[in-house]
Design a protein that fits this description.
This protein is mainly beta. It contains 1 helix and 11 strands, in the order ββββββαβββββ. It is globular, with a radius of gyration of 19 Å.
Amino acid sequence: MPTTVKIVNKSQHPIPAYATAGSSGVDIRANIEQSITLSPLERVLIPTGLFFEMPEHLEAQVRPRSGLAIKQGLTCLNTPGTIDADYRGEVKVIIINLSNEVQTIHNGDRIAQVVFQVVEKVAFQQVDQLNETDRGAGGFGHTGKN
C-alpha cells in the first residue's frame, strides 16, 4: 500500500498523478496567471499551487522533465530540489532556459516532476582519521576519461 501524502491544490489543475504503473515521479504544472517568456539563460521561479504534507521519513525531490529539456531547452536549477517533510509552503520550481531561443511557459504546462524518497537520518561520530581505501581522496575525474 502506498504511503499517503496530503496535498492542498490551490491551482485549477488536477492533482499530480503517476502517468504509468512504472512511473517514478509525478508531473507538476505551472500555476500562473499570465504566460512567462524566458530569454536564453534567463531563469524564473514558477508557482504550482501545490502544498504537501509528508510523513517525516519522506522528502520530495523536484526534478527536470526530460521532454521539456530536449525539446525546449528548459530545465530546473537546484536539481534535485529538496522539499523537506516539515515544509508547508507552496511548491515552486526554478526554471532556466538553456536554449538559444526565447521560450514561453503557459499556465498548466508540465514544468517538472516530483519523486518521493525515503530519507535516512544519520548520527555523526567525530574521529581523528578515516579508514583508508584504494580510492583515497581522488575525485572529480580521478579515474580518467574512459
